[in-house]
């Protein structure tokens, strides 16, 4: 089993996470190209460089706001609602998987901010976490995690720091209230660092993506990456990540995961609503959504709406189903999902590089599928049938 492990001995922030994943081997060009799909691409620049913290070299990422946007739209940057974030992410040409991961992180922050301020998620104004740099941090995290194609994400207990920090609401204690709310139920360390070690953005990245927290590192380390932070502490301000193989949890080339299916039979809802509801479900963390035509008692035609999701997101998915559809209840099933190992490769074709998702069995690639959005983009660019792009990939990138 391919594992990504977050070693948060000095906490985590959005920029440290991007630096660590790039240092681990995520292609910088891939990240830049994907981020350019956002409508806010003209509002920022990404600076990537090698830095050293107390003798440890790693990658430093800075999101630099462009001056003309920063001065003229300062208020806009720091006062975005969840619907604004949703429009930015869903309005892009990023893959559905990246959009889902990104929204899952922002939903974690929205839930925490709503709880702290006594408001609903839709009423919350995003301040620090709604600024352009945080949008880049979270969407960038989703892009990098999808690129790595790991089977599980693990993390150590999280150092949150101590003392006080200034923010949009004034001077508040560390950890910040939103950070504490996000990290409920997650093992943390308090006081190991004088200052804010973990930000709400960093906490949300972990909360939305980590499957298990443990300080035991029982795996075979393949690669190590360091993301360099901005602050100076008594210990190195770096985030360490491992790419590893956990042989004990791997059965041949299969990967097992426990997920949940939620279902509802609906016979009294406007069919036009399904598209909207499906978008909401994916934004809430649904892994798959299907609609099956069925016949209910007395011959009534209906739709069985089925949603596959993780245990982390099940409560939010339930809420969406109960509030957005006409159903009065949902059925819940625990399921075990068995998957082939996967990896993401770049194939060079005469039309340009294309990402290809490959399935592995007995150490060999037995299936592969080009990323549709990238093929579509090249088909439009060169005004050719999309099948020509697929043929170029399946031909191994060689010219015909």
Q: How are the secondary structure elements laid out?
A:
Layout: E1 2-7, H1 14-24, H2 28-35, E2 44-53, E3 56-65, H3 67-72, H4 74-77, H5 82-90, H6 96-117, H7 132-148, E4 152-155, E5 158-162, E6 164-167, E7 170-173, H8 177-182, E8 188-190, E9 195-196, H9 200-209, E10 212-213, E11 220-228, E12 238-245, E13 254-266, H10 273-283, E14 288-295, E15 301-309, H11 314-324, E16 331-349, E17 352-361, E18 364-370, H12 372-382, H13 386-394
Parallel strand pairs: 1-4, 4-10, 5-8
Antiparallel strand pairs: 1-12, 2-3, 5-9, 6-7, 11-12, 13-15, 13-16, 14-15, 16-17, 17-18
Helix pairs in contact: 1-7, 5-6, 6-7, 6-9, 12-13
Please give a handful of descriptors for the protein shown.
400 residues, Alpha-Beta Plaits, Ubiquitin-like (UB roll), 13 helices, 34% helix
Tell me what the structure shows.
By secondary structure, the chain is an alpha+beta fold. The chain has 3 domains: 2-249, no CATH class; 255-329, Alpha-Beta Plaits, CATH 3.30.70; 341-394, Ubiquitin-like (UB roll) (Roll). It has helices spanning 14-24, 28-35, 67-72, 74-77, 82-90, 96-117, 132-148, 177-182, 200-209, 273-283, 314-324, 372-382, 386-394; strands spanning 2-7, 44-53, 56-65, 152-155, 158-162, 164-167, 170-173, 188-190, 195-196, 212-213, 220-228, 238-245, 254-266, 288-295, 301-309, 331-349, 352-361, 364-370. A hairpin with a 5-residue loop joins strand 14 (288-295) and strand 15 (301-309). Helix 5 runs antiparallel to helix 6 (96-117) and helix 6 (96-117) packs across helix 7. The longest helix is centred in the N-terminal third of the chain and has 22 residues, at 96-117. The chain starts with a strand and ends in a 6-residue tail after the last helix.
């Amino acid at each position: 089993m391919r594992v990504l492990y977050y070693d948060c001995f000095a906490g985590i922030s959005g920029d440290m996470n991007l630096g660590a994943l790039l240092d681990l081997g995520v292609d910088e060009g891939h990240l830049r190209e994907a981020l350019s799909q956002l409508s806010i691409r003209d509002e920022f620049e990404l600076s990537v460089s090698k830095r050293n913290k107390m003798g440890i070299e790693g990658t430093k990422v800075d999101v630099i706001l462009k001056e003309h946007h920063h001065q003229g739209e300062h208020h806009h940057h720091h006062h975005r609602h969840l619907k604004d974030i949703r429009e930015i992410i869903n309005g892009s040409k990023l893959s559905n998987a990246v959009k889902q991961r990104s929204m899952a992180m922002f939903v974690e922050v929205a839930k925490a901010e709503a709880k702290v301020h006594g408001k609903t998620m839709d009423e919350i104004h995003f301040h620090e976490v709604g600024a352009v740099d945080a949008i880049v941090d979270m969407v960038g995290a989703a892009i990098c995690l999808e690129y790595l194609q790991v089977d599980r994400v693990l993390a150590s207990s999280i150092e949150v720091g101590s003392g006080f920090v200034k923010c949009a609401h004034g001077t508040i204690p560390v950890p910040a209230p939103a950070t504490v709310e996000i990290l409920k139920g997650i093992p943390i360390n308090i006081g190991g660092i004088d200052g804010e070690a973990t930000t709400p953005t960093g906490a949300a990245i972990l909360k939305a993506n980590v499957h298990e927290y443990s300080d035991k590192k029982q795996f075979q380390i393949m690669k190590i990456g360091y993301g360099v932070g901005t602050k100076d502490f008594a210990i190195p301000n770096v985030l360490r990540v491992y790419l590893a193989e956990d042989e004990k949890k791997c059965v041949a080339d299969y990967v097992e995961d426990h997920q949940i299916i939620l279902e509802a039979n609906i016979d009294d809802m406007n069919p036009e609503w399904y598209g909207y509801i499906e978008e909401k479900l994916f934004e809430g963390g649904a892994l798959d959504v299907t609609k099956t035509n069925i016949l209910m008692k007395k011959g009534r035609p209906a739709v069985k709406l089925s949603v596959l999701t993780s245990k982390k997101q099940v409560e939010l998915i339930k809420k969406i189903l109960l509030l957005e559809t006409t159903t009065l209840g949902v059925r819940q099933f625990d399921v075990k999902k068995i998957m082939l190992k996967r990896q993401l490769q770049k194939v060079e074709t005469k039309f340009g590089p294309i990402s290809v998702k490959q399935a592995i069995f007995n150490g060999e690639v037995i299936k592969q599928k080009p990323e549709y959005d990238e093929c579509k983009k090249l088909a439009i660019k060169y005004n050719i049938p999309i099948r020509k792009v697929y043929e170029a990939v399946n031909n191994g990138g060689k010219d015909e």
